[in-house]
Amino acid sequence: MASITFQNTPVTTAGELPAQGSALPAFELVGQDLAPVASAHLAGRRVVLNIFPSLDTGTCAMSVRKFNEIAAGLENTVVVCVSKDLPFAQARFCGAEGIENVVAGSAFRSSFGEDLGVTMQDGPLAGLLSRAVVITDADGKVVYTQQVAEVTEEPDYDAAQAALA
């Protein structure tokens, strides 16, 4: 379990992020159109998982906007923004914000959070996903991870971009 905080209150997660060099656990999320967003469909491309609690918070919304900008300049890379928001809410947000360079995936009916160790186990956001970034190479091997220590803070975009360079 990772020890993080939410507004300086200690929170634990369901586990640890996958280790660098390990294979990313297989996952299936629900896309905005209710079709599966599965790791198997992303094979052969680098994958950036931008994981967060909910689009209904300023910090989460900002991370989606920022990764949307970053994704515009990446080749052979797909950025998947993952939360437990319903696909309808994700579609509404992405449409209103002009988000076109990332894929939104809902973990509302999958074991994604437990499989990647990011489900918050306690605190006011228990059951939602913690803020984290996981990046794989085109072979599905994890090359970068960040479990953001304070849920209300943004991820390290520069470090994520450096991992993709």
TrEMBL record:
Q: List the disulfide bonds.
A: 60-94
Q: What is its EC number?
A: 1.11.1.24
Catalytic activities: a hydroperoxide + [thioredoxin]-dithiol = an alcohol + [thioredoxin]-disulfide + H2O
Keyword check for Plastid, yes or no.
Answer: no
Family statement: Belongs to the peroxiredoxin family. Tpx subfamily.
| Protein function | Thiol-specific peroxidase that catalyzes the reduction of hydrogen peroxide and organic hydroperoxides to water and alcohols, respectively. Plays a role in cell protection against oxidative stress by detoxifying peroxides.
Cite any additional comment in the entry: The active site is a conserved redox-active cysteine residue, the peroxidatic cysteine (C(P)), which makes the nucleophilic attack on the peroxide substrate. The peroxide oxidizes the C(P)-SH to cysteine sulfenic acid (C(P)-SOH), which then reacts with another cysteine residue, the resolving cysteine (C(R)), to form a disulfide bridge. The disulfide is subsequently reduced by an appropriate electron donor to complete the catalytic cycle. In this atypical 2-Cys peroxiredoxin, C(R) is present in the same subunit to form an intramolecular disulfide.
What NCBIfam families does its record include?
PRK00522.1
Please state what the protein is called.
Answer: Thiol peroxidase
Where does this protein come from, organism-wise? Brachybacterium ginsengisoli
- Organismal lineage: Bacteria, Bacillati, Actinomycetota, Actinomycetes, Micrococcales
